[in-house]
Write a structure and sequence with these properties.
The complex is a heterodimer of chains A (347) and B (251). Chain A is 75% helix and 0% strand. With 347 residues, chain A is mostly helical. The chains are: A mainly alpha (347), B alpha/beta (251).
């Protein structure tokens, strides 16, 4: 290999122009597709027009009638925005957990977030609290479970990640047991809790979107910043430490950001499984090992994936809605196996 | 150049190293020898802060700067299969980058230089998973070199290599330290090889330094009998001591 050729191959991993273009094209198509489809299909250009027109100071001729405008602005747009944010958060949190634990099976629910949030929500349903309290208690439950996992993991295993993951399993089992007990005592609330557990983006207005946005932005920025350091962690804790990386600090930042954002997402959308597992993995299989690529692309493809999954959830069995958690697993699992087979097969 | 001063390492309630002191001068190559479990790896790990220790480790005049003063090659480095050789070597630049910083042209040039020095230029784009044992070992050395630290600690750099590749790696190391004035400490199991390459040997046993000096004073049958057990002969053939395993005849 010539010197110039060698020099060309020495470059930090990053998303290329084509990679960005493709990712944003997929996202744009998903968003517009989600916006224009539903119980009534609305002209896609008109849908975009209405959105732009709603921005103060912008006036665009969109040709939609009053009802169509309200459907777009008050129902579909917030729901799609929510879907995109939740999808992005779950996917990027999954990528972060996988990097920090060097465990391909790590996902946003690993450390007990899901079980804790589920328990929090069940409390509200079981004791007939106002439904507006559900997100708050789910958020508190999720964070409390992770805090417990962290304390337990530390007390038994010090610096190892396995002890943390095992502590997560124990905390999740414990929280689920209490949840089951509560449900058995209050069978009439079973249906509500069940629908929450399967995840939904149904009763969403702009308020939820605005609540969730800061968590999503902070988590994404923190994880984007840590992409390079997560790559160093691929060498193992000892070698990363010897290269001057404060492994414990990096792990703490990444876990905290991912967990906080997951808890926020779960509290408004319920438990939507699988996104955090399959989106980063698919990105990894298609683009390689570096978190400097996996993290940004997981954000964009996670958003696209959940918007499309939600589109299917609300149109496939219309007028009924399929729980979105069912769609993500139903679509995600075979798709993931397909990617796995095609990428690993020929080698 | 590098000095361990009253360094002691304790795992749980078991003292595994020291307290001991050891100094290695600038440009010197120290071979750390001793039976399994003597504490060689632990002593090296203490210097890079991978294990907790009492006492102090100094490099040069200033306080120890993690990653910048010492480059460490573990016994079994983790080589992510998918990573390319150049990406792997680039990770050696980590100590020179800020928490959120990215690589500059200088970092890329340094990687280029390291690859060249270890004859890996043609391998820059190859995945680590496709390298042979000798090539992989060179990649690890290139990464350590890219760190541009004045002290190089290598834990069993030749343990997975045949004698030809082992010699090659040690020759490269010798050339590097002469050319760049690096201070080198290697933990090595092959006693003859250690004696041939290192300027000085330090023998460890049960966490203590039990012999320290040039090869002919450390590699004696009496020392080896005491710390490795029976059945080892040492022949001096003018090229330095050669250690020969012999078997005791049994009925």
């Amino acid at each position: 290999m010539s010197d110039t050729k060698t020099r060309e191959s020495i470059a930090p991993a990053r998303v290329g122009a084509l990679g960005w273009l493709l990712a944003f094209a997929v996202l744009a198509i998903s968003l517009v597709w989600g916006l224009q489809s539903g119980s009534v299909d609305i002209d896609p250009l008109g849908s975009i027009g209405v959105l732009l027109d709603s921005i103060p100071g912008v006036e665009i001729e969109h040709g939609l009638n009053e009802i169509e405008q309200r459907v777009i602005l008050e129902i579909r747009a917030p729901r799609i925005a929510m879907g995109a944010i939740v999808g992005a958060v779950l996917a990027v949190a999954g990528a972060g957990y996988q990097g920090v634990f060097r465990n391909p099976l790590a996902d946003p629910y690993l450390l007990g977030v899901a079980a804790g949030a589920g328990l929090g929500a069940t409390f509200v349903f079981a004791f007939e609290g106002a439904s507006g309290v559900v997100p708050i208690l789910a958020f508190v439950g999720g964070l409390a479970a992770v805090a417990l996992t962290y304390v337990l993991g530390k007390s038994v295993g010090g610096r190892t990640t396995t002890s943390l993951i095992l502590a997560g399993v124990a905390v999740a089992a414990f929280a689920t047991a209490i949840q089951t007990f509560l449900l058995q005592r209050n069978l009439d609330t079973l249906r509500e809790v069940y629908s929450w557990i399967l995840g939904r983006l149904v009763t969403v207005g702009w308020g939820d979107v605005i609540t969730l946005l800061p968590y999503a932005v902070v988590a994404s920025v923190v994880l984007l910043i840590h992409g390079r350091l997560l790559d160093v962690l691929a060498l193992g804790d000892d070698e990363a430490e010897a290269l001057g990386v404060r492994v414990v600090r990096v792990r703490r930042f990444v876990v905290l950001a991912a967990t906080l954002a997951t808890a926020a997402a779960v509290s408004v959308s319920g438990l939507i499984g699988f996104v955090g597992l399959i989106v980063p993995h698919t990105v990894r299989l298609l683009t390689g090992w570096s978190y400097r690529v996996i993290i940004p692309l997981s954000i964009i493809y996670g958003a696209s994936f959940l918007v499309v999954a939600d589109l299917i959830a609300r149109t496939a069995a219309a007028p009924a809605e399929i729980p979105i958690g069912v769609v993500t697993a139903f679509l995600g699992a075979p798709f993931f196996v397909l990617v796995l087979r095609t990428m690993r097969g020929p080698q | 150049m590098i000095a361990w001063r009253d360094v002691a390492v304790t795992f749980g309630k078991t003292r595994v190293v020291g307290p001991l002191s050891l100094e290695v001068g600038r440009g010197e190559w120290l071979g750390l020898i001793g039976p399994n479990g003597a504490g060689k790896s632990t002593l090296l790990k203490a210097a890079v802060g991978v294990v907790d220790y009492e006492g102090s480790v100094d490099v040069g005049e200033h306080d120890l700067r993690r990653g910048l003063d010492i480059a460490w090659m573990p016994q079994r480095p983790r080589l992510p299969e998918e990573m390319s050789v150049s990406d792997y070597v680039l990770l050696g630049r980590t100590p020179h980058l800020g928490y959120v910083g990215g690589e500059t042209q200088h970092d890329l040039d340094s990687v280029m230089g390291s690859l060249k020095r270890l004859d890996l230029s043609a391998f820059a784009a190859r995945r680590l998973g496709t390298l042979s044992g000798g090539e992989a070992q060179r990649a690890v050395m290139a990464r350590a070199l890219a760190q541009e630290a004045p002290v190089l600690l290598l834990d069993e750099p030749t343990s997975s290599l045949d004698i030809g590749h082992a010699m090659e790696v040690l020759e490269i190391l010798d050339e590097l330290r002469k050319h760049d004035g690096l201070t080198v400490v290697t933990a090595v199991h092959d006693l003859t090889m250690a004696g041939r390459f290192a300027d000085r040997l330090a023998m460890m046993a049960s966490g203590e330094i039990v012999a320290d000096g040039d090869a002919s004073t450390v590699l004696t049958e009496a020392n080896l009998l005491k710390h490795y057990g029976a059945g080892i002969r040492v022949v001096n053939n003018g090229d330095g001591p050669t250690v020969i395993p012999t078997r005791i005849e049994r009925d």
